[in-house]
Amino acid sequence: MTDASQNAGPMLAADGTPLKQSLARSLRRQKLRALMLVAPLLLFVMFSFIIPIASMLFRSVENSMVQETLPQTVEALQSWDETSGELPDEAVYDAFVRDMVVAVDNKTHTRLGSRLNYEETGMSSMFRRSGRKLGKMDPETDGPFKDQVIEIHEGWGDPNTWAIIKTHSPAVTNGYFLNAVDMRRTPEGAQSQPEDKQILIKLFGRTLFMSLVITGACILLAYPVSYLLATLPMRVSNLLMILVLLPFWTSLLVRTSAWKVMLQQQGVINDTLVWLGLVADDARLIIINNQIGTIVAMTHILLPFMILPMYSVMQTIPDSYTRAAKSMGATNWTTFWRIYFPQSVPGIGAGSILVFILAIGYYITPEIVGGTKGVFISNRIAYHISSSLNWGLAAALGTILLAVVLLLYWCYDKIVGIDNVKLG
Amino acid sequence: MTDTMNDAAFVEFQRVQKSYDGENLVVKDLNLAMPKGEFLTMLGPSGSGKTTCLMMLAGFETATHGEILLDGKPINNIPPHKRGIGMVFQNYALFPHMTVAENLSFPLEVRNLGKSEREEKVKRALDMVQMGQFGGRRPAQLSGGQQQRIALARALVFEPELVLMDEPLGALDKQLREHMQFEITRLAHELGITTVYVTHDQTEALTMSDRVAVFDDGRIQQLAPPDQLYEEPENSFVAQFIGENNTLEGVVKSIDGNTCLIQLDDGSEIDAVPINVHNPGERTKVSIRPERVEFNKDRLHADAHTLTATVKEFIYMGDVFRFRMSVAGNDDFIVKTRNAPDAIRLTPGQEVEIGWLAQDCRALDA
User: Helix H segments across B157-195?
Assistant: First the structure.
């Protein structure tokens, strides 16, 4: 008999092949089968989720439009010093006319106009208005162009225009990210936006703050309910559970609209308060279209996401722990605080992560009940996606939001430990 | 049986009843008195009310009727944390988020003991269960037997006079269980603690206790020291529940002081000790232990009563031989004999004369 373990070198299977290889072969079929089973979902997620998100994130730095539309101009501008305060020379104008003739032909000059309009208002109309005349020029015979071009629109005689084109010519830009944090890319480098345009940082701050408040409110409201659910007899707790889950079976839009009915100045709550005489008729509370409205409605909507993980954790805490503590002489409060509460913390953690991350990206509810003071950063992203069509900025905002969530997740892992999060 | 007028009783149940739903009594008229320092086991099948009794004593359930006295004082209205009773739970209930030392320190902290005193007592308690090295570990890092020791140390660390144990060895394997049985009784006697121990394992009850209370149907069926319980069961439930037992059914023909004549259902007649039969004509179950039955003619006592039996099965168990026989219509009559050099091995199908002493044969309720 040969003993494989006594031989030097790798273990061998009965037929002499290395054991590792033999094992891998026998497992290959199994792995292949597993892969086949997940393949449909994997492909679906790949094409409908990962690729679109990746392309969206890429838009936050992508900036090839200037280079593609005005290739010769961008090259000619390389030798021009934008800090000199003087206009570029004839070579640049010549290149510009050549580029524009092609661009007008392809009708891409208006798109470039809108792109540059994000950086300096007026650019869009400048490109649109000069387009037709520039497109009719013949680059070979009509030169020199400098004066003719300035004649068509006086904007071309402003060194700032050329400086902007040069600043935004690189194919990869940090401009959108600077915009996203209330700064902008200028010929002189990154600078703060003017005071009246600084809203995004504030909006990020408000989103984080309100999400924290909502998470806190959810913890306070969900903890006693979860405790009841976990300790009551099965029959009663099942009934309670249905009440908790009931909102899940109603459309989000319906629930939010219901809050609108409840909270408005002529709404149910104000009417009741006035009827009770707690609030004067001419001093009805303003609890909608501001932060209060958003917090109230979102706390209600996200509450089940806090209750469910808490409940499933509390359910696993056996009665015998509290009994043991009491038998050792601990009062009810000490038993709760020293024994029960620490063991329920993983549930609070899991619920908080869930609620916070959901809240930070919430859109519909703040849109409906938030007014202008209660909106989140996601509403701004939606605005840039569908109204202003500044997708680059929207992508940059989205990327920052994603980074913030990941950062918080990482902090949470460091402080609480993700192993402590239990969903059941 | 129970002596409710016992003045020296440390723990006393007086006519205690318990109902959960208002329709059925889980504990029916429980009377029990324990002197200080006794190790008493509550033994019974599940649902017999033994754990409910323990929980009432600990204060986690309230008695529906009756008084529970601790050291002469009624404790029905004292909350569990003021009773000062140590308790060991079935699954140990060690707090998973605390180290072993913190677990032991907890009952001392809630009693506001100083830090140095706490540390000293924790150390002493850990040494007592030979777990001195494990203070810094978490319960999850310990084996079942080690957790059991810690749970025991935690119940004893605040020096309670009464300790309750709810099937504490149920989760351990056989060998460890036997070792811990010894360990627990040794500690209980060394420290002079009064112990109430709940189990459904009769071997555990017999080997550990000073007295055993056998529970069934919400009542104590018999309360007696282990040897008395095994050798002199007072009713057929106890005879069946404790150890292995043979039952022969029949009718009492006559009673004469300490003996009675029983006519078995197949017509044969045997002598027995009347335990709870009082009148001729009553139906009875006669109980006899397998090891008191003899079929070796040389050893059979001259006075022994004999019956004819057919061997059905021979089971070799190492230290003993076990025979299943058909006796007086009962096909499950068990006879045990020690595997001695002169032991006879019967073969299935064989007919033998078996016999026993009349005093080993007890006529119990039907």
Answer: 174-191
